[in-house]
Amino acid sequence: MLLFRRLLAATAIVFLLVFVGSFSDNGAQAAQVTATISLKDQRMKVTVNGWKRYSWKVSTARRGYRTPQGSFRPTRMYERYYSKKYHHSPMPYSVFFYHGFAIHGTNAVRHLGSPASHGCVRLHPDNARKLFELVKKYGKANTQIIVTR
Domain residues for 37? Predict the structure, then answer.
């Protein structure tokens, strides 16, 4: 009977460690969120733990501007944000990933699918909200933003 109790206690401890370990320090669930932006296709594909969740049209930098390429982690997030550089333009559900560059919602949805921004990655506001919520849920440390040619 004593052996059974010890085995049961050990199993409970292992379960608790696995359960608690599946959450990061800030309470966000540990999972890998990847947002891959193709400048060529003007499209963002979002995966969670390797499983495709979304594919959305985006607008990246138009001629004369650039969207930085590479692999990034989100640095800061704002549900409501207004550009300090471009006429106080609304940038809902902003996920900043490199200096002043962010993924955010736009009112110019008719331009999605073609280059139109000053360098940010624009999304339909509904899609920007979905991405924002994923990053918030799983954590900035568990999110990767990849911008490819």
Answer: 31-148
11 and 62 in a single domain? The answer is no
Over the stretch 105-119, which tens digit does the pLDDT of each residue have?
Answer: 999 999 999 999 999
- What confidence tens digit (pLDDT) does each residue in 49-102 have? 999 999 999 999 999 999 999 999 999 999 999 998 888 899 999 999 999 999
Q: Supply 53's token pair.
A: 């969740």
Give me the long-range contacts of 107-110 (CB less than 8 A, separation at least 24).
Answer: 108/59
Q: Does 94 lie in the same domain as 142? A: yes
Alpha-carbon span 106 to 123, nearest angstrom: 6
Amino acid letter at 3?
Answer: L
The residues, any chain, with a CB within 8 Å of residue 122's CB and separated by 6 or more, are 58, 59, 60, 104, 105, 106, 108, 111, 112, 116
Q: How many domains does the chain have?
A: 2
Backbone angle region of 29, left / alpha / beta, with phi > 0 → left and psi within -120 to 50 → alpha: beta
